[in-house]
Design goal:
The protein has 1 helix and 10 strands. The protein is mostly beta strands and 155 residues long. The chain has a single domain, classed as AOC barrel-like. About 10% of the residues have low confidence.
Length: 155
């Protein structure tokens, strides 16, 4: 479950960088993340496990060299080893101080879809989305690397 939350968050993350004035930015980013606050696991009487509340931080490096900082939270639900679903949000901060807010939704324990909620500065009025996949999960269970692709369109 924590893999899902990381992916999402990070994922979503991968959205941050390209020409500031381009109508559509191609996202092709590597995301280097770590859990800052652990998730809480809640075991429900119906057998479902809810994983919630953790905070992740990631550094995003787009293929063009742009860098951003990303903070994410979310919730996932599973039934034993079977993933049921989840969702969350991320705040991405560019090196210039612009903000991008995205949502994420897991598609598997290692991957998620993401979409733009809104933004400021170069991302004001932005739309778009893509996907994110964990490429490396470190044995400590807290750190990972993921790859995010997609597009962000600005007015």
């Amino acid at each position: 479950m924590t893999k899902i939350i990381r992916v999402l968050m990070l994922t979503f993350c991968g959205l941050i960088w390209g020409a500031a004035h381009a109508a559509t930015e191609q996202i092709d980013a590597m995301i280097y993340g770590v859990d800052v606050e652990p998730n809480e696991t809640i075991n429900n009487p119906n057998g479902h496990t809810v994983t919630v509340g953790g905070l992740t931080h990631a550094t995003i490096i787009n293929a063009n060299g742009d860098k951003s900082s990303q903070w994410c939270r979310g919730t996932t639900v599973s039934d034993g080893d079977s993933f049921i679903g989840g969702a969350g949000f991320c705040t991405i901060v560019s090196s210039e101080g612009d903000y991008l807010w995205i949502w994420w939704k897991p598609t598997t324990p290692e991957a998620n879809d993401w979409g733009v909620i809104g933004g400021s500065g170069r991302w004001a009025g932005a739309t778009g989305g893509g996907d994110n996949t964990i490429t490396t999960q470190f044995p400590d269970g807290r750190a990972w690397i993921s790859h995010s692709t997609g597009t962000i369109t600005t007015p």
